[in-house]
Write a structure and sequence with these properties.
heterodimer, A: 273 residues, alpha/beta, six-stranded mixed sheet, 7 helices, 16 strands, B: 222 residues, mainly alpha, MetI-like fold
Chain lengths: 273, 222
């Protein structure tokens, strides 16, 4: 369980105000943070990571105090068990993929490093530097680098923002699979509605530094998930995507398993409320 | 034609080489600290480091002459405790050059470090790396062109020193008679041919160094 109770004066798009976030996240959950630009989503990630210091409050992760103004505890980022994926990836230009992962990796865990590389599909790029990689590949390196220390908390700042549909779908699948395997408590800042719908256990919407909406995906799923028969299925060569049409929705995916679907099969349609 | 005395050229290169090496050792940590710390009195230190850029070399030389002189407290202390005489000696030229060329090493490296994205440093911290290891493994390797610029500017600037050397070093052959002093001296004696040779050597040498740096820098940046 992660308990967050933070206050910090901050300048918002609308003017000066206060970021006040009080929430708790279940261990192993994946929470999507949404909200308008400048609402404080990235600041919240940075506060949890220890890259910025709130004026008051506390952060307790699985009983371990990371920050507490009353107890005067403020662990530096190095002492917090975090993985942080920056929006610009923050990969170091002087290091190859292999060097970047080894730089972050704790000593004596080569099997885990290899597993991580396999799961992120980085095997063929190991000796390339960031400048030689595509945006999607760079994000996967940043993700692998962030996870190699087996963090308790994984913080992702709009990892899909600069990616095209195909690359972000591929990264989404990698992230989803990694989360299912290692269950790091994840906070994901995203503007993409499908992240909230598909991956998240919970969606928190922040507006002007305050939690405006806190929605458990499970509750929403019951009300919103509907099965519908497939009317039409096609493979789009150019985008390498399966496109499935139902009565109400058009669904797209690069997942090859969708090729097994047939017209008339029932498919889960997740519609946003 | 008079035989060329190579001593001033050799002395110049030795002074520039030693100054550059020592300033690299001093300048990198100093520039890193200036670039990365939020110390409130930082502007004071920055202003002091930059002073040689605006002051005439004779002013810096004059104050160093007063400070290093055995009649001053500092000069006497150096002489009695460290057996070091910094006036009219090669060691004195090295110390003076260190102070005089300091901004030429510090400024490019500081600017290079300040221009790196903050997220690189933050990313290294979130990966459990200490500030020192972050500097050594992430930040400095990514500002090689800036470090190279600092090295070259310091070396070239030390080669070109004249007023400062004249003030505290004088014109002692083998000790303080560097190439720039030798040229002035030879012109005074109307030995234009020798002055020509020294001047041409400095010109070719400086051009060759700069050319090399621009080639190497291009390769590092690309």
């Amino acid at each position: 369980m992660i308990e967050i109770d933070l206050t910090m004066p901050r300048l918002f798009t609308e003017g000066p105000g206060e970021l006040t976030i009080r929430t708790s996240l279940e261990s192993g959950s994946l929470t999507v943070l949404t909200g308008p630009s400048g609402a404080g989503k990235t600041t919240l990630l940075r506060l949890v990571a220890g890259l910025e210091t709130p004026s008051s409050g506390r952060i307790v992760v699985d009983g371990h105090v990371w920050f507490d103004t009353q107890q005067r505890v403020d662990l530096p980022p190095q002492k917090r068990s975090i993985g942080y994926v920056f929006q610009d990836t923050a990969l170091f230009p002087n290091m190859t993929v292999q060097e970047a992962i080894q730089f972050a990796a704790p000593k004596g865990d080569p099997a885990f490093v290899k597993e991580l590389i396999d799961r992120t599909g980085l095997g063929t790029f190991m000796h390339q530097k960031p400048a030689q990689l595509s945006g999607g590949q760079r994000q996967r390196v940043a993700l692998a680098r962030a996870l190699v220390r087996r963090p308790q908390v994984l913080l992702l700042d709009e990892p899909f923002a600069a990616l095209d549909t195909q690359a972000s779908e591929s990264l989404r699948q990698v992230l989803s699979a990694l989360h299912q395997v290692w269950q790091a408590t994840t906070l994901l800042v995203s503007h993409h509605a499908q992240d909230a719908q598909i991956m998240a256990n919970r969606v928190i919407r922040i507006v002007q530094g305050k939690v405006q909406l806190d929605e458990r995906a499970m509750d929403k799923a019951v009300s919103a998930q509907v099965m519908e028969p497939i009317l039409h299925i096609a493979y789009h060569e150019e985008h390498q995507q399966w496109i499935i049409q139902t009565v109400t929705t058009q669904l797209q995916s690069t997942n090859p398993a969708w090729g097994q679907q047939r017209v008339g099969d029932l498919i889960l349609v997740r519609t946003a409320n | 034609m008079m035989p060329i005395d190579w001593e001033p050229i050799w002395l110049t290169l030795r002074l520039a080489g030693i100054t550059t090496m020592l300033l690299l050792l001093i300048g990198v940590p100093l520039a890193s600290w200036l670039a990365l710390s939020r110390f409130r009195l930082k502007p004071v230190l920055e202003a002091i480091i930059s002073l040689p850029l605006v002051l005439p070399p004779s002013v810096v030389g004059f104050y160093l002459l007063l400070a290093f002189s055995p009649t001053s407290d500092f000069g006497a202390w150096l002489l009695h405790h460290l057996n070091l005489q910094l006036v009219f000696s090669f060691e004195g030229l090295v110390v003076a050059s260190l102070l005089y060329s300091l901004p030429f090493m510090v400024h490019p490296i500081q600017a290079g470090l300040e221009n790196l994205p903050v997220s690189w440093r933050e990313a290294a911290y979130t990966l459990g790396q200490s500030p020192g290891r972050t500097l050594w493994r992430v930040l400095l390797p990514n500002c090689k062109p800036a470090i190279l610029t600092g090295i070259v500017l310091t070396f070239a600037h030390t080669i070109g020193e004249f007023g400062l050397v004249l003030m505290i070093g004088g014109n002692l052959p083998g000790q303080t008679r560097v190439a720039s002093i030798a040229i002035y001296d030879e012109v005074e004696l109307l030995h234009f041919q020798t002055a020509h040779t020294y001047a041409a050597l400095l010109l070719v040498l400086s051009f060759a160094i700069l050319l090399l740096v621009y080639f190497v820098n291009k390769r590092v940046t690309v």
